[in-house]
Amino acid sequence: MSASPLVNASPELLQDLVDANHILFNEGVVDAFGHVSARDDRRSDHFLLARNMAPGSVEVGDIVEFDLDGKALNGEDRRVYLERFIHGEIYRARPDVMAIVHSHSPSVVPFSIVKSVRFKPACHMCGFLGHGADIFEIRDAGGPATDLLIRDQHLGKALADSLGSSNAVLMRGHGSTVVGPTLKQAVYRAVYTEVNAKLVADALRLGPVEYLSLEEANAALAIEKEIERPWQFWKAAARAARTK
Ligand code: MN
């Protein structure tokens, strides 16, 4: 199935979004759940996100165009992700954000439920974590009996408020949402958010952890200029895994 002509984005962005889905699956950030979106590169008030499906199986024809309210503009007959409001409300609040990854990557979830340990950057690949990630407490916005999912615009806006000007926010008992100024950087940050969580959990077993200072974190952001190296490597690995 080919993409509907209603999708305005460049063919290059659509292909990169397909590859982003496959990379995030192959690198263990998403499984059957989780999603990645890109802001439409020809219309900043629209974004692109696959229909409701496992990211590892996404093809170009599965990409749906949404407005910031989370309304599907093509392929409305197709089921869409319940949590698309994460994406719409962050794009609305953050003009600098061009791509978003929402995942339940397993090493990060413990940091969402142990509120006494702040999730902070522990290695030089993770400067984007800056002063650390806040935890979004859905009870504050949705009351005591939600299913923890971002099911509507109200919860999406509350999550965007919790993210603030940061690049990552943890979601209590659920996962995380990571943003970037490009799709490739958002993917990189999602991969390294999971890596950082593994490193810190290992280090905490050894003793007190020395994190990057905010100044070090900001300086370490320079490594994202090398984004093509991991992107091309991960893309090749994901494609090889799919043809096995
Ligand atoms: Mn989720």
CATH superfamily: Class II aldolase/adducin N-terminal domain
Number of domains: 1
Q: What fraction of residues sit in β-strands?
A: 5-15%
Q: Write the CATH architecture name.
A: 3-Layer(aba) Sandwich
Distance between the termini: 23 Å
Q: Please provide the ordered H/E string of secondary-structure elements.
A: HEEEHEHEHHEEHHH
Shape: globular
Considering DSSP H and I runs of 4 or more, what fraction of the residues is helical? 25-40%
Strand order of the largest sheet: 3-2-1-4-7-6-5
Count every beta strand, where a strand is a DSSP E run of 2 or more residues. Answer: 7
User: What is the CATH class name?
Assistant: Alpha Beta
Summary keywords:
alpha+beta; 7-stranded mixed sheet; 14% strand; 7 strands; binds manganese (II) ion
Would you mind describing this structure in some detail?
By secondary structure, this protein is an alpha+beta fold. It has a single domain (11-226), classed as Class II aldolase/adducin N-terminal domain (L-fuculose-1-phosphate Aldolase, 3-Layer(aba) Sandwich), CATH 3.40.225. Helices cover 38% and strands 14% of the residues. It has eight helices and seven strands, in the order H-E-E-E-H-E-H-E-H-H-E-E-H-H-H. It has helices at residues 11-26, 85-93, 109-113, 138-142, 153-163, 183-206, 214-220, 228-243, and strands spanning 35-39, 46-50, 63-67, 99-103, 134-136, 168-171, 175-180. A seven-stranded mixed β-sheet has the order 3-2-1-4-7-6-5, with helices on both faces. The relative contact order is 0.17. The model has no long low-confidence stretch (mean pLDDT 95). Manganese (II) ion binds next to loops. Manganese (II) ion binds at residues 83, 102, 104, 174-175.
